[in-house]
Amino acid sequence: MKNQKLFVDETGTKGMPSIVFLHGIGTSSWMWWMQVEALSGFHCLTIDLPGHGRSNHIAWHSFADTAHKVATIIQEHATNGRAHIVGLSLGGYIALVMLQHHADILNHVIVSGVTIELMPNRSLLNPQLWLMSFLFKRRWFLKMQANSLHLPANKKTAFIENLQAMSMTTYRKIAEEAVDFYIPPTLNQVMNPTLVVAGGRESKIITQSVYAIPQIMPNAQGWFAPKPGHGWNVEAPTLFNAMIQAWIDNKPLPSQLQKTHDRK
User: Fold this and answer.
1) Which of 49, 119, 164, 242 has the lowest tally of Cβ within 10 angstroms?
2) 250: left (phi > 0), else alpha (psi -120 to 50), else beta?
């Protein structure tokens, strides 16, 4: 029987406050390389989620199951059994579910690129999944996607290999849960400082969530990075890293970011 523990890479400074980084769909812990380098003064934990990267052999079940697995890692590896969380896209959903079920082991939380409204035209989901199952096996398409992110050569290779290795069963399960995701009403009682962010070039359904989630959570704020798109930890790493540092340190966020009430 294969090892059922998720892959965890520990970097930075042991004994310092821990930050857990949760990646997007079809990628893995490699996508955080610029964050862990810049934040090496922290104890950084990058995790390959089920069905991804070096956890590819572990079946994906649900957001809640994955949140539980991440919580176990925090309890076993993080300094004093607690951690800050940074989640982008799929990782952002997991962070929200962790706030619902495991808020007691979390400190500050950053969520980027999620939706909390039911997907319009849900009847189109199956055709979209069929199309993606076709495209994910076409190397020219994956190269085009990697080029659009302006990744260095070794990271392009990781991007392509991760997408090719992910099963369509995993992709379908995640997509079906994501399009039906809504923010749990019990989060109105969760007091963890939570930063909800998105790139300014995100789709409308994602930017709406930057406004909506802070309306529900008492200690949450919504901010935009005006110029980047979805994967802005790679597109604008200096800004992304400065945002993490400031949020964790309870300091003013970088001036390049726009708060929701400032945004027209």
Assistant:
1) 164
2) left
Tell me the average pLDDT of the chain: 89
Closest CA to 24 of 153, 111, 147: 111
CA–CA distance, 119 with 245 (Å, rounded to integer): 33
- What tens digit of pLDDT does each residue of 172-189 get? 899 889 888 888 889 999
CA-based nearest residue to 216, from 237, 177, 257, 186: 186
Alpha helices in 102-256 (DSSP H): 125-135, 139-148, 153-165, 168-179, 204-216, 232-235, 237-248
Reply yes or no on whether the pLDDT at 88 is more than 90. yes
pLDDT of residue 134: 55
Q: Retrieve residue 205's tokens.
A: 């359904």
Q: What predicted TM-score, i.e. pTM, was given to this entire model?
A: 0.91
The answer on pLDDT for 130 being more than 60 is: no
Residues with Cβ < 8 Å from 64, sequence gap 6 or more? 97, 101
pLDDT at 238 over 90: yes
Domains within the chain, CATH numbers bracketed: 8-119+180-262 (3.40.50.1820)
Which residues touch 262 (CB under 8 Å, ≥6 apart)? none
Q: How far apart are CA 43 and CA 30, in angstroms?
A: 16
Residue type, 146: A
d(C-alpha 91, C-alpha 110), whole Å: 10
pLDDT recorded at residue 123: 57
CB crowding 79-106: b at 16 or more within 10 Å, else e? beeebbbbbbbbbbbbbbbbbbebbebb
Asked if 166 and 52 count as a contact pair (C-beta separation under 8 A), the reply is yes
